[in-house]
């Protein structure tokens, strides 16, 4: 089964938006093993839209068209479809009622062009659009099946989810279902991870094993097809975690801060921070999560040496003797934060974000302190590459990594 | 002059990435008034790449091709180009030297397939790639000019900037230069802004005036073409700012936090925050900026009532009597933060981010306090719609808006 995706809209050819609709449709259909051979974009011009539909009809079995179903003059998908599929437009009554009802409810005058959105091809199977006005349409012609969807991503996605995936899988018996799971690791480099799984990767067939480097973490995507893909994935996951389970913090869309939050909740522990170069970025990532109040008291952000004394109560002597970018300062920041915030675990960040040096240290030098319960504070020294933004992000991610491994014992 | 953009790469048809190259090229060329009629994506399959080049040769004057110039077996753009343009490949010596040098420097063995990246069409004008290995190529055939560029966005962009824009503007006398400026406003709604500029918008021709709603701010894009577009924009900008200049905080890519930072620097003032629901997001957006140390001491993040007493020293009595989500608590937070952080201006945030209610208040209720120098603290009450994330973002943006208008007198 040969498929293609056509997007209709001049805004795409002007570069105002990227064709993310084609990406989304392709990625989702890839799970079913569908073969998409072409993406194309054509502007709001009847001749060119007709040409691109004609070409698609020749070369593909299924053509998914997004866009050009709106109420204005330059929405031409319906007209082009009639020409190519030798059909005519009729008014779809349920849609017309929906449009009229909408205008009545909002006390607006319905203009004549709004009627256009209720027009469908006579031969079309009409798909109700729960997110907007213009319905989707499926037209089964002799050469090819055309599926017309609105260009607004939310509307396109809801129609794909509500009708199109089912239609395609049933009609074309797309059985080779593909399942995948993304295993997420932290504290291990991509090359070390690959080294440890070398033989598994060499033998991979089904599931396939694809290592992917992220920002501060590493992931492995397992993709299985055929019968019982879940079972194949589960078995491979077990083999992998036997070797590198220590670094695994969760699957799919989980973030390292969520993994840390889960552990804090499980262990009924609270956390707080004392931050210099990260400027509140750590505590912000904690408080961003729903349920933060059960694990988090708050944080102290002290960007200047003066604020470190005043806010975090780092003794002046430590700053004079060791500077604020020092293991000693990080240690003291963690100790004081635990006391001041009244938390079980505190974490501190001090270092040089750049772009210029500070206290004679180059950008990228960072100290992270952790004080957990009654144990003495621990400090680690790190070097991070990159821009000011990257150094600050990597510092915070490293903080979550250290906390995860401390809590996950 | 009819143009089109073809992207070669199966990763696009699998939906692993969106075709942002076509978007970028189109947006940049739109400034020169170029007409792009088609975007298409084709996978790494020789027959289909040849077909798409053939079609483009028929219908377009200029064809920009991205991707398929790498070293591996499935990089087929060169081979397809030879077939369609009846040409042959030769080794480009400077590129070959560059590749060999790279491998030598990094002490790696160069594999035979790396040689492939130095192959170019005999008729091609070769464009040196300052960001990577494979050079760009321009081939002027009878029917159409083909421009071949690597698919890696940074390499594609550098070749466009270094050679292709100049080549196209010279060859096709693309004179109708378009200039645009984005005027950014805060503290005024999109509809009020439109109302105040109604007659200007009604008369618009050149420059055009397009209002755009953003997240917390509103922008107007002025786009002028023809001779002296800068002058046309400057004149219209003056007319617009005469009416709504109070809300204008800068142009193009400036953010509201940068505008606030500029004002603080100008006035030699320092700032600090006391944050509850925003969790450090305000101070993080200040410290993120280069040069933060000259304007910012730090911040206090207190998420729980206990932390508000302990860290920000809000008197227990205020919390018992008014709750933490109150004008009184916001006021006290601002007052204490100014003292504790030793800053000229302090700002406080307390409210309900959701998803559940807190102290009997619905998500979205927020108090923002500001204490500037010796003036009494001011508190404003706001309601924000949306998810936890949105409420927290809107709160912080509102804070910057209040500071901007306070400082910009």
How are the secondary structure elements laid out?
Two copies of one chain form a homodimer.
Chain A lengths: L1 E7 L1 H4 L6 H11 L4 E8 L3 H14 L2 E5 L10 H9 L3 E3 L1 H13 L13 E3 L3 E3 L8 E5 L4 E5 L3 H19 L7 E8 L3 H7 L1 H6 L4 E6 L3 E8 L4 H16 L3 E4 L4 H11 L4 E5 L5 H7 L8 E7 L2 H6 L5 H7 L4 H15 L3 E7 L13 E8 L5 E6 L4 H20 L2
Parallel strand pairs in A: 1-2, 1-3, 3-8, 13-14, 13-15
Antiparallel strand pairs in A: 4-5, 6-7, 7-8, 9-11, 9-12, 10-11, 15-16, 16-17
Can you walk me through this structure?
The structure is a homodimer of 409-residue chains. Chain A contains 15 helices and 17 strands. Helix content of chain A is 40%, strand content 24%. In chain A, the strands form four sheets. A six-stranded mixed beta sheet of chain A has the order 2-1-3-8-7-6, sandwiched between helices. In chain A, strands 14-13-15-16-17 form a five-stranded mixed beta sheet, sandwiched between helices. Chain A has a four-stranded antiparallel beta sheet with strand order 10-11-9-12. The first copy, chain A, has 409 residues and is of the alpha/beta class. Chain A has three domains: 2-171, 3-Layer(aba) Sandwich (Molybdenum Cofactor Biosythetic Enzyme, Chain A), CATH 3.40.980.10; 179-251, Alpha-Beta Plaits; 256-407, Alpha-Beta Complex (Maf protein). Chains A and B meet through α2, β2, β13, α11 and β14 of A and α2, β2, β13, α11 and β14 of B. Chains A, B: Pfam families: CinA, CinA_KH, MoCF_biosynth. Chains A, B: It comes from Halobacillus andaensis. Chains A, B: This is Putative competence-damage inducible protein. Chains A, B: Residues 4-171 form the MoaB/Mog domain.
